[in-house]
């Protein structure tokens, strides 16, 4: 297995995580202000597949398989599951969606952005309990994901989905998680990395061209061609000393930014803030809150903030060299 430098935290990975969570916030800003616009479309096919792939890449499979399911859940509860539960309860309370079936609904049909943690934990548990090799898990994930993409949609969703089914992301995203896991297990190949550098922009430009031309086959192909090569390049990114301290700081607390930016959007929107000022003030508020809340251990814990001396995960998981993840 490929291994990194023990105890070393990659500024490249933190930077990628920070850019991805900024892309999520920016994408939701365009969705709120402009609806299904072209800027919202650009990131829709990239940011979450890459987040899922990054999680798979940084997931420590051997450590997870050495734990019982109870121990595994206990390990992820303080820094991932608990903040998600708190954010979910705040969401359903403010939107008045709290009812007797809320716990099941939050797990299977989470609202808005809250789907990410249940989907990610599902992939984690599958990888931990299956005992299959990473190639075997990817071999199963490929037909499952591609079949689900055709049936449930990628960008332009079909007019009628089966509402009794769990969230479609449980089915369309396994390929990215298990591909990231496989990439972490293999030695990088320079020829394939060169091919990835060529293919990724081709897939991205193809995806951009499909904004006003719904075509499920093309959308599936474009997303895969754009995202899988970028996931393959994560070992390259990991070794880059990227001097982006502000972006990396956001990446280190990506869970906090991810979970709470819709609430900050709503609060500023209620105060009649509009346009780019809404995005700027939301981001500035989140940035300012992190150091303030980090001083309060209990509050930081339930909100998903990584305190300065903590080594726990923020929206990801332990990598082969124990590096914290999303």
Oligomer: single chain
Low-confidence segments: 1-7, 310-314, 316-325
Proportion in β-strands: under 5%
Q: Give the CA-CA distance, first to last residue.
A: 22 Å
Structural class, by secondary structure, is mainly alpha
The radius of gyration over CA amounts to: 19 Å
Helicity range of the residues? 55-70%
Overall form: globular
Q: Report the mean per-residue pLDDT as an integer.
A: 87
SSE ordering: HHHHHHHHHHHHHHHHH
Which keywords apply here?
326 residues; 17 helices; single chain; globular; mainly alpha
Structural features, described:
The structure is a single chain. This protein is mostly helical. Helices cover 69% and strands 0% of the residues. It has 17 helices and no strands. Helix 3 (47-58) runs parallel beside helix 12 (216-232), helix 11 packs antiparallel against helix 12 and helix 15 packs across helix 16. The longest helix is centred in the N-terminal third of the chain and has 26 residues, at 69-94. It is globular and about 50 Å long. Mean pLDDT is 87; it is low at 1-7, 310-314 and 316-325.
């Amino acid at each position: 297995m490929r291994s990194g430098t023990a105890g070393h935290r990659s500024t490249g990975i933190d930077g990628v995580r920070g850019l991805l969570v900024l892309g999520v916030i920016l994408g939701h800003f365009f969705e709120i202000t402009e609806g299904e616009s072209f800027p919202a479309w650009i990131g829709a096919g990239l940011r979450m597949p890459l987040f899922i792939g990054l999680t798979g890449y940084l997931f420590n499979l051997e450590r997870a398989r050495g734990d019982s399911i109870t121990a595994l859940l206990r390990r992820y509860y303080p820094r991932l599951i608990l903040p998600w539960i708190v954010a979910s309860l705040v969401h359903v309370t403010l939107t008045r969606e709290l009812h007797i079936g809320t716990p099941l609904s939050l797990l299977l049909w989470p609202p808005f952005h809250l789907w990410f943690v249940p989907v990610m934990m599902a992939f984690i548990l599958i990888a931990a309990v299956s005992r299959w090799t990473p190639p075997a898990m990817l071999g199963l994930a490929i037909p499952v994901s591609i079949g689900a993409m055709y049936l449930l949609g990628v960008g332009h969703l079909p007019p009628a989905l089966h509402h009794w089914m769990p969230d479609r992301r449980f089915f369309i995203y396994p390929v990215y998680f298990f591909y990231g896991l496989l990439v972490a297990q293999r030695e990088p190949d320079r020829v394939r990395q060169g091919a990835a550098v060529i293919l990724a922009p081709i897939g991205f430009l193809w995806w951009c061209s499909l904004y006003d031309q719904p075509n499920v086959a093309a959308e599936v192909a474009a997303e895969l061609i754009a995202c899988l090569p970028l996931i393959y390049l994560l070992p390259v990114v990991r070794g880059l000393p990227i001097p982006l301290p502000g972006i990396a700081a956001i990446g280190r607390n990506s869970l906090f930014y991810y979970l709470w930016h819709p609430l900050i959007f709503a609060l500023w929107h209620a105060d009649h803030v509009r346009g780019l000022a809404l995005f700027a003030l939301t981001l500035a508020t989140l940035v300012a809150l992190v150091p303030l809340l980090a001083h309060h251990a209990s509050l930081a814990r339930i909100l998903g903030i990584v305190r300065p001396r903590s080594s726990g995960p923020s929206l990801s998981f332990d990598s082969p060299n124990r590096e914290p993840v999303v």
